[in-house]
Design a protein that fits this description.
With about 260 residues, the chain is of the alpha/beta class. It has a single domain, classed as TIM Barrel. It is about 45% helix and about 15% strand. The protein is built from twelve helices and eight strands. α1 packs parallel to α12. The structure holds phosphoenolpyruvate. Phosphoenolpyruvate binds next to β8.
Length: about 260
């Protein structure tokens, strides 16, 4: 197995602290000893620290949904990589399509975050993906290429394999419309080729590329069986322990 599969749950703006505690306890009870797949949960900031305490001693890793590139300062409402690192966060989702569309994040800004995350020894999950209009206009690969290259400016070969890419077609996020396994595999293979050119082919082969967009227990086995799909970034199905655990099991079965 060149690449260990990874299942990451993006809880978005859901779960109060006590709901988060219930969810993470159920996840730990069922997959807290899984070592053949990396499992990551990304709660909202209000429960990152408490969820991390529940994860202590389990194999499930802690993630965050966003961060600011600066180390500290007058950035009201923001959180830095160092702050996340100090509470044992290991992964951070960057450039999610909701951040790009609703909060105006550009590739250049996302790139600053990627560099700051790596400097603080956080693993960035860099999200890329086209809108429905872009797909229909035939520009999917161009959009993905620009977002990928823009997000990775200045990333050194020495920490390239700490980066995780998530291909998330915007039209499939939270819509129940999933990309077919062929559509997803085509873009994943393209991303891997670009990574091979940007770094080295060996690095391109090691970087994990997740699929995100209405991944559910029913469609996961086929997606996860594709040669270049190394796991999933999960929204809706990560909000219930049962479906999230089934996705982890689907990744285990795909090994
Ligand atoms: C996401 O927001 O990253 C996502 C993939 O959401 P969903 O699984 O709900 O489509």
């Amino acid at each position: 197995m060149i690449r260990k599969k990874l299942i990451a749950g993006n809880w978005k703006m859901n779960k109060t602290s006590s709901e988060a505690a219930d969810l993470v306890s159920a996840i730990v009870a069922q997959v807290g000893k899984a070592n053949d797949v990396d499992v990551v949960v990304c709660p909202p900031f209000t429960s990152v620290e408490s969820v991390g305490q529940t994860l202590d001693g389990s194999s499930v890793k802690l993630g965050a949904q966003n961060m600011h590139p600066e180390r500290n300062g007058a950035f009201t409402g923001e959180i830095s990589a160092e702050m996340l690192r100090s509470i044992y966060v290991r992964y951070v989702i960057l450039g999610h399509s909701e951040r790009r569309a609703l909060f105006g994040e550009t590739d250049a800004f996302i790139n600053q975050k990627v560099l700051s995350a790596l400097k603080a020894e956080l693993k960035p999950i860099l999200c890329v993906g086209e809108s429905l209009e872009e797909r229909e206009a035939g520009s999917t690969l161009d959009v993905v290429k620009n977002q990928l290259e823009g997000g990775l400016v200045g990333v050194e070969e020495s920490n390239a394999t700490d980066v995780v890419i998530a291909y998330e077609p915007v039209w499939a996020i939270g819509t129940g419309k999933v990309a077919t396994s062929e559509q997803a595999q085509e873009v994943h293979a393209f991303i891997r080729k670009l990574l091979g050119e940007r770094f080295t082919p060996a690095i391109g082969n090691k970087v994990r590329i997740l699929y995100g967009g209405s991944m559910k227990p029913g469609n996961a086995p086929e997606l996860l069986a594709q040669a270049d799909i190394d796991g999933g970034l999960i929204g809706g199905a990560a909000l219930e322990a049962r479906s999230f655990v089934q996705l982890v099991e689907a990744a285990q079965a795909a090994n």
